[in-house]
Structure formats: C-alpha cells, structure tokens
Amino acid sequence: LVKRLKRQNKTEEQLLEKALRNLLKETRSLISIKINKYDDLIAEVKKEILSAKKQILIRLWSEELELIEDELRGMEKKGIDIQLLSFTPLEKPIGETFSYNVDPHSFTENWQRGLALFVDEERVVVGNKIGKHPIHGLLTNDILIAESIRDQILLDVELVKNKREMRKKKKKSG
Fold first, then answer.
1. Which of 33, 61, 97, 113 could pair covalently with 139 via S-S, beta carbons 3.0-4.6 A apart?
2. What is the pLDDT of residue 134?
3. Cα(first)–Cα(last) distance of the chain, in Å?
C-alpha cells in the first residue's frame, strides 16, 4: 500500500510540475511562486536550467555551482548559451564564465549569499541564503522582475570584464 501511494504521489507531483511549467511558458499571466526552503530553491533552479531552450544567465557562489554543475554542463553540451558569473573562484568554467574571485570565507552571516537565474528571456529564479536564517526565494515570469535580474547579472559581468581590462592595462604599463 505504501509503495502504491508513493508511486501515485510521484505521478501526481510530475503532472503538477508539468502543468505549472506549461502555465509559466504559455501564458501572459504573471505567475510568481515564493520559495521558502533552500533545497526547493536549488530544485527549481535545476528544473529551469533543464527547461532552457536558448540562454541561461546565472549569478551564484561556488557552493551553489557544486549543486547544479551537472545540469549546466548538460545544457552546455546541448549548445545552450550560458553566461555564468561567480562571486567566488571556480576551478572548472562552464560556458562563458566570469568571476569576482572573492574568498567565500571572507563574508560573515550578515552577507546575503544570493543566486539569480535568468532563462530564455522569460523566467527567473532568485533567492538568498543568509547563514542559518530562512531563505527568501522566488520563481516568476514577471517581465519587470525578469528584466531587472537579467540587467543585474549583465552589469556584474561587465564589471568583471572592466576589472580584467584594468589589470591588463596595469600590467602593460607597470
């Protein structure tokens, strides 16, 4: 009986996920879902990465990359355009990778360690992890929020590029 109930629950869960994904993709209605658990945030990020058709912009920390690396690498192999910005150094770049190279241990619990994902010009998943405190996360297709998150990620990418260029110029002149 328990096995049967688990299978039935899993089937219903898959149907709900598919219906929600279709609703997010095929409607002009604004849909926003609050995410309250870190594991749920990571699960939503993985689902959105795997649903990408053209482009993934993502800003994260190395801690989160470890949890979603397989999904990103799989999408990179499929030819999805990936721009990844990490606050912390990364050993193995994925797609076009940029990093601020911040020591992950240099921040205290007061720093909000955030993650932002922008997929296919239409959906975003954002969230933060503040030490032991609850996370605040959101999955939405709200164009205003999506464009704002995209712009934040692209601004960070440009800042990293400018920082690289300044270092190169300094080395040449020094």
1. 33
2. 65
3. 74
In this prediction, residue 14 carries a pLDDT of 83
Distance CA 130, CA 142 (A): 25
Helices H / strands E in the chain, number of each: 4, 7
CA dihedral 25, 29, 30, 35 (to 10 degrees): -60
Please give the sequence-ordered ranges of beta strands (E in DSSP) within 36-155, or none if there are none.
55-60, 81-86, 96-99, 113-119, 123-129, 136-140
Give the C-alpha separation, 102 to 114, whole Å.
Answer: 14
pLDDT reported for residue 85: 93
Nearest to 117 by CA among 92, 141, 91: 141
Beta pairing, strands 81-86 & 55-60: parallel
Task: Bin 128: left if φ > 0, else alpha if -120 < ψ < 50, else beta.
Answer: beta
